[in-house]
Each structure stands twice: as C-alpha cells, then as structure tokens.
Amino acid sequence: MMMNPRSSKDDGEFSGQVGHRLYLGMDFGTSGARFALIDKQGTIQAQGKQEYPLLYMAIKNEETMDWVSSWKMTLFSLLEDVPVSLRPLIASISLDGTSATTIIVDSTTGEPLWRPFLYNESCPDALPLVKSIAPANHTVCTGSSTLCKLVSWWNSDDSNKEQALLLHQADWLLWLLHGKLGISDYNNALKVGYDPELDSYPSWLLSQPYSRVLPSVKAPGASIGYLKEDIRSQFGFPKDCVVCTGTTDSIAAFLAAGATQPGKAVTSLGSTLAIKLLSTSRIEDARFGVYSHRLDDKWLVGGASNTGGAVLRQIFTDEQLDGLSEQINPMEVSPLDYYPLLAVGERFPVADPKMVPRLQPRPESNAEYLHGILESIARIEAKGYSLLKEMGATQADEVFTAGGGAKNDTWTKIRERVLGLPVRRAVQTEAAYGAAFLALKGAAL
What we know:
Layout: E1 22-28, E2 32-38, E3 44-51, H1 55-60, H2 67-81, E4 90-97, E5 102-106, H3 127-133, H4 146-156, E6 164-168, H5 169-178, E7 183-185, H6 203-206, E8 216-218, E9 223-226, H7 229-235, E10 242-244, E11 247-248, H8 249-257, E12 264-269, E13 273-279, E14 291-295, E15 298-305, H9 309-315, H10 318-326, H11 366-390, E16 398-402, H12 409-419, E17 423-425, H13 431-444
Parallel strand pairs: 1-4, 4-10, 4-11, 7-8, 12-16, 16-17
Antiparallel strand pairs: 1-2, 2-3, 5-6, 9-10, 12-13, 13-15, 14-15
Helix pairs in contact: 8-13, 11-12
C-alpha cells in the first residue's frame, strides 16, 4: 500500500470540507506522546501532543516513575484532544511504542504483575542464558532485548507464573482500546525472538518454559476488533471504528518519511545517527547491532552509531551551528579526520567497545572545525550504508533525512557529496503520522 506524506494543517485546524473517513495514529515516545489524524490522501487534519503527566513530578521529587499509569492517562488525554467534530469520522486507530519496552501482565485482568522494563534497560544477568539457546549473533543476544527482560523476570520473580502474559508497550495500550488480551505485532515481537520470515516463534524459543507467556502475533496494521463500547460512547467515535495492531516508534517514523521502495533509506540525525534502509533481503548481525524488521514483503534493515548531534551540542550552541554552517563551502573536502563520540565505544558501522572519541587536532577556525566534524559524521553514515550493502542489503539509491540535523542545508550538501546519493528532508518525520498510516492500512484490509 502506497501513500505520499502530505503537509499538515495547523494544530487543531479543521476544514469543514472533510466528509470522508479519517485515521488516527498515536506515538508513545520516551517523554511524551503525540497524535496525528489523517485522511485517505495522507493530509493531516489534526495533531497534538502530551507530556507524560507524572514524569516531571517524579524527576522533581526523585521518586520512582509510575510509567504504566502515566501511559494510560496520556492515552486518554490524546483521545480527548482529538477535535470533537472529527471523532465521528474516525475509521481506525493504531499506535506505536518504544522498542523492547516490556510489561508482564495478568492474562485475565491485564493488570501489570511487575514494573515495566523500559526500552533502554539492560538485563545482563539473563544474557548468558539467552546466548545459550539463541543462534549466534541473533537480535535477542543483547542485554536490552525483550527476551533478556523476560528471562530476567522469570528467574527473579517467585510468584505464580501461570497467569502471566508478556506484552509490549504498544500492545498493552492498544488492549485498553480493543479489550482482547495477548495480541502483538511482528515488529514489536522481533526482540523477544519472533521470526518474521517464518511468521512464527522459533522452536528454540518455544521449547523454553517461559514461552507460554508470549503473545500471539499479527502483521502491523492488522485489524484486531472494534473500539470498546465504553470508550466509543465516551468520546463519540463511530460504531465501526476498528483498532489495529501497532509497531515500534522507529518503524513508524520510517513509514512517516514515505520511503516505500527498496533502496530508499532514512537517516535520523538526532542525538545519535541511525540509518534504516528498505531492502529485498534480510540481514542480521548482533555484533554491529544490525537487524531487519519485516515490512510486508520487504525488510527494513537498520543500524545505529553513537556519533551524532549530541557531540555537536557539546561543542557548539545552536546559534553557533547556524552561523558557522553558513561559512562552510559544502563542495570542499575537509582534510580533518575525526570520529566524533561523546564517550568511549562504538557499535555501528564499527563494532569496537573500546573506540576512543577522536576530535583532534582542532584548527583555529571554528568553521573549519565544524566542517571537519560534519564531514566526519557523513563519512560514518556512508560507511554504514556500505556495510549494509556488504552484508547483502539492497544498495541505497536515495536518502531521506529526519531529526534535527535535517534542518542544516550545509550538512545536507556535504552528505550528498560524501554519500554520492540524492539526500532530501522527509516531508513528515513524526512517528504518529506513521502510526496513522498503519491505521489507514488496517481499515483498507
């Protein structure tokens, strides 16, 4: 299914011309959530955002964050923020959550049995056990994988496990809307060991005692069922509004960029540098943190470097970045050879936990220094795409850019020269837009 991202209306603005069905997507990120409401052509009809209500208070008072309650409150706040006049037009809903954010719940009530494991939380205690059962260099063979979190919980909690069920953040939030416990999607389930190529859990996982807590898996954007009656009547959604399976936040952001053909890629230039490439072949290598998500009959191959905007922010202010960038000729090759990192260690495109940041020698000119850093990050990006090709992925032929770095035109021109590819800014970069696209896909099935 193809859809071209369109520009949006201002927040909350609504054209009285809309008489067609609309599709609601929500994105649950690390510090807050957003919604996007689109029509069949991909034009945003309304959008909004909410910070997690308990996060600020928890930080201020140095308390443990009640993530589950905060996510639930935010979900219903977003539904409340959808313009009342548009709610009767909504045909379907989907949402994304942070990858590998894991909740163990009661399989009857849906209530959490344990605090959630967050996306970036590592469980090194479980890693030797996981490595002993999984194939070498499998995606689950990292301490932050969902499977490591499950094994860690299984081995540390003495409570009755008969009623336990594993859900991902997106699964649990969608359950609040459709009421059918135990359903996930193959993007979220990848890091618990689900094989999207076989479309099943592998035998090495099913033979483990904790496999009974695993959810059933559908394709992202698959219709699960109608919106629960109490929510439908409370908010004024139509009787035929369906809830669809979700995805992860990074995949939703990729979908938002509109990269729909093999060879199309998205580089996210945020605090770190992440690349994703649509490929006809699947590649996996845990050494480099490279893994493939299934997207219908294609594969979304990705890797993430520790270089990126956080290094720039440590050296320059936003005003300096803007001013100095204007002094750089992007067609000139910088002779400076850096490896900009905030701390020791790199994973992709070089797997070296002992790699030391290299930001010397520093020239007298700040513009020359910035030029060298921007070009060095572009070389790392190019090396990343080259590595994916060497591993067997489709050759990249066009790169869309998301994240704060997409706004720097000088950097874009440097990257075009270094990559030898057309580079352009993605029209839409919000993951909520990608989730709305999944809702549209689900309604069409």
